[in-house]
Write the structure tokens for this entry.
Amino acid sequence: MRMYDIITKKRGGAALSEEEIRWMITGYTKGYIPDYQMSSFLMAVYFQGMTDEETAILTDAMAKSGEQLDLSGIPGVKVDKHSTGGVGDKTTLIVAPVVAACGCVVAKMSGRGLGHTGGTVDKLESIPGTRTSLSGEEFLDVVRRTGIAVTGQSPNLAPADKKLYALRDVTATVDSIPLIAASIMSKKLAAGSDCIVLDVKTGSGAFMKTPEDAVTLAEKMVAIGVHNGKRIAALITNMDIPLGYQIGNALEVEEAVRTLQGQGPADLTEVCLALAAQLLYLAGKGDLDYCRGLAQDALKSGAALEKLAAMIEAQGGDAECVRHPEKLGRAPFAMEVKAEKSGYVTKMDSAGIGIAAMLLGAGRETKESEIDPLAGIILSKKTGDSVKKGETLATLLTSDEAKLEAAKERFLEAVETGAKAPQKKPLIFARVTERGVE
Ligand code: URA
């Protein structure tokens, strides 16, 4: 078999055989197929797509390219969630402890921030002492002891995805539906949970710019999950506006804790309750309404917050920072961004705001960049709010004063004001299950 022939076949729009896909993924993972040939193949997929069957085989080959977690020795229903990435998206820090407090077992591997989007691992690391590169044994031990662990991805989990993702990131081939579906689902299958809820973001800050594309991606991932015996559902949620009011690592932990204390912003609380209810439903805890009630009770009683504190402690972190998030500290430099005219906030481009947060130090400009855990943005206004000239739109925070000006400019580019209030968009557009789209 030759990679040249596989590239030619895909470039012409033909479907690859199972043998070809498995040969290619093994060869690429082992380093026999060079990056330049794989780049060419990825671009061919970008333009020609893949059939559902090809996507399912690709996912399976990637999932089996490294270790596969065996959670069968841990009693209880194992659940996992995945977000396709957003700005201000701290849902894992809330949904995971909520469902753990309701009796599900959460054994979750999370990623770092990517481009303008944040990552759970970076957020957890803003809590002093928290370890996010647990060995397989340590990870399972924390899960057994506390019912919940969130760690960085083990280097040997779906290594084909790790190599492919890095290549896609620099060859403009990230936003291809079959490639995203295979990337996400290969990791979910290798991570071994029984139930999976997917939060597929749509809007300016998401890979999927329209709800229609988000539904197509969700349908493909749900089909792959069902084919592999998983209980799985996806929610299509709005990423035209950042989720909540705080963007940045420690800032998001603080807002997540407030949400776990029942005092979170309405949009964040709603998305988290919806995701938690879906997971509890998939785990067989009752119908959706009942499961939503269970999730609400876990917030009200403080049980979810205590689960997060127990997990942080078990992973070496300072649980007091969860109970008293002000202990996380504040960045030494702050700048208020004022509205330049009166009216309504008509647009808050999430991607632009994510980039402004990154410029402050909350994300990485290059793979080598160091994160500033205290950097980020606190929004005072969001899309639809009325605003007066000179009123504060947001506060920028950083440990490096020199970063404030550029971030302010980028922030202001992302925000539009107008005379008329914009039409409100739904927070949750649809739910996708094996029964279809609702
Ligand atoms: N997240 C992933 O893990 N993979 C993608 O391809 C896109 C988002």
User: Anything to note?
Assistant: DSSP finds 17 helices and 14 strands in the chain. The chain has a mean pLDDT of 94. Residues 84-85, 165, 174, 179-180, 183-184, 207 surround uracil (CB under 6 Å). The two ends are 44 Å apart (CA to CA).
